[in-house]
Design brief:
Elements: H1 8-27, H2 58-70, H3 76-85, H4 89-94, E1 100-101, E2 106-109, E3 112-114, E4 119-121, E5 129-132, H5 135-148, H6 159-162, H7 166-177, H8 186-197, H9 202-209, H10 214-224, H11 241-246, H12 251-257
Antiparallel strand pairs: 1-2, 2-5, 3-4
Length: about 260
């Protein structure tokens, strides 16, 4: 049952049932020669095998955005914003132009949209934060601003997005272009791992993404391989060309040393 992925509670219930059946059978003398249930004293653990989180590498990210732009996919601007800000889905949905300061090049993240309750609430951590606007993001925001007209939201509205089906839209498109199928929240992970891989301090990434838990941050540090980066460069196990040449016998020198036959 553990290998099949059954929960600890389910396995405990099955064990308890087996104990009850055997105890009743022993008391009723229906199970001769047995004094206790076969699972009596069996220890159950809640061992969990950690799965590697899904992530897109840089080539896959570029392929995703390039294909979305060429095909003029309506969700292109949403995916770009997610990959260039690390904002959560609900935070992107609730983002207003009043939260964007193009002059100082910063975005204030202070609220989030809840798709099931269809309401705007505070961020997951309950705290506001600031996300810097990069050169690439500035170009996108200026394009969105030019086409926004009187829309107060930064990003366009879609029925699927309002209903919380943003993951389905992304997975469907990824499969269509031959890129690894990922959920929408993975774009936030891609943002964090790319910054970490580019030697941005983990404390800054944690602040920009709004993580209050260091344990969550450590997962993305492992994904980016920051702590392990360059560690194996100190290994020198393969023979170099110079070392290999030292092992080669000079035939002319050997002829002088060895007695003639």
């Amino acid at each position: 049952m553990e290998n099949a992925g059954r929960s600890l509670g389910y396995r405990k219930q099955v064990k308890h049932t087996i104990n009850l059946v055997y105890r009743w059978g022993i008391e009723q003398r229906l199970i001769p020669g047995v004094r206790e249930a076969p699972v009596q004293g069996l220890a159950l653990s809640n061992r969990k095998v950690e799965k590697v989180p899904e992530i897109l590498n840089l080539d896959e990210i570029r392929c995703l955005l390039r294909s979305a732009k060429q095909l003029e996919h309506p969700w292109y601007s949403i995916w770009v914003m997610a990959l260039l800000t690390g904002m959560r889905n609900g935070e992107l949905h609730a983002l207003l132009w009043s939260d964007v300061n193009l002059q100082d090049r910063k975005i204030t993240v202070s609220k989030s949209y809840h798709s099931r309750r269809r309401v705007v609430k505070s961020t997951k951590s309950g705290c506001w934060r600031t996300v810097p606007i990069s050169d690439e993001l500035l170009v996108l925001l200026l394009e969105l601003k030019a086409s926004a007209e009187k829309r107060e939201h930064v990003l366009p509205r879609f029925h699927e997005w309002d209903a919380g089906r943003q993951a389905n839209m992304l997975r469907k498109f990824c499969i269509g272009i031959g890129v690894r199928s990922v959920r929408f929240h993975t774009l936030r992970a891609c943002f964090a791992t790319q910054l970490l891989a580019n030697d941005v301090a983990s404390a800054r990434v944690m602040k920009i993404c709004g993580w209050a838990d260091l344990k969550t941050m450590q997962k993305y540090i492992r994904l980016a391989g920051v702590d392990e980066k360059g560690a194996t460069q100190t290994l020198r196990v393969l023979p170099s060309d110079m070392a290999a040449m030292k092992e080669v016998v000079d035939l002319f020198e050997a002829k002088q040393i060895l007695p003639s036959v």
